[in-house]
Amino acid sequence: MSQPLKDLLHTSDLSASDIEVLLGTASKFADKPLSAKKSLARKTVAIYMTKSSTRTRLASETAVAHLGGTPIFLRGDDLQIGRGETISDTAKIISGFCTALIVRTFAQSDVDELGKYATIPVINALTDDDHPTQLLADWLTIRENFGKDIKNVSLFILEMAIMLQMLG
């Protein structure tokens, strides 16, 4: 049995069992969005974005609120990263105040470093290199439309990903 994930930094970090747990949980929340409204009661989740996104911001803040938590939205210029404070210092400070950190930024290395030094879960909501939350959302949509046995669909997706990688 694999170790439970602390962070969601890279799509490649996800095992088949991680994906099953995440998709199963997401499906339950989609059916009953307020079913776990005390899960994050009296807790805060930092949402740090240097790349703007209407959907990601709204989805993240709404999800935290539906779980009973308080989202704290932070733009790049709200923090002192690069202006006298290191990423590792920032990770430690946020860990002292928040229960989790959602990050949407440019450099994957920034997300990796936040994950390394944070004592709380760090979730990659997009970098220039990876977008694990989007992959999971897409996978859930595919499952909802094609069912759980999606071997042929997964092969198609893999082929498309390879083609897109070659084009990019």
Sheet bearing the most strands, described?
4 strands, parallel
Indicate the proportion of strand residues. Answer: 5-15%
Q: Give the ordered list of helices and strands.
A: HEHEHEHEHH
Shape: globular
What's the alpha carbon Rg, rounded to whole Å?
17 Å
Could you name the ranges where pLDDT drops below 50 across 5 or more consecutive residues?
none
Q: In order across it, which strands form the biggest sheet?
A: 2-1-3-4
The N- to C-terminal Cα distance equals 36 Å
Q: How is the CATH topology named?
A: Rossmann fold
The average pLDDT is 89
Report the oligomer: single chain
CATH architecture annotation name: 3-Layer(aba) Sandwich
Assign the structural class, choosing from mainly alpha, mainly beta, alpha/beta, alpha+beta, or little secondary structure: alpha/beta
Based on DSSP secondary structure assignment, what is the total number of beta strands?
Answer: 4
Q: Which helices and strands occur, and which strands form pairs?
A:
Blueprint: H1 16-31, E1 44-49, H2 54-66, E2 70-75, H3 87-97, E3 100-104, H4 108-117, E4 122-126, H5 132-146, H6 151-167
Parallel strand pairs: 1-2, 1-3, 3-4
Helix pairs in contact: 1-5, 3-4
Report on the architecture of this protein.
It is a single chain. With 168 residues, the chain is an alpha/beta fold. The protein has one domain (11-130): Aspartate/ornithine carbamoyltransferase (Rossmann fold, 3-Layer(aba) Sandwich). It is built from six helices and four strands. The chain has helices at 16-31, 54-66, 87-97, 108-117, 132-146, 151-167, and strands spanning 44-49, 70-75, 100-104, 122-126. The chain has a four-stranded parallel β-sheet with strand order 2-1-3-4, sandwiched between helices. Strand 3, helix 4 (108-117) and strand 4 (122-126) form a beta-alpha-beta unit. It is globular. 23% of the residues are buried. The model has no long low-confidence stretch (mean pLDDT 89).
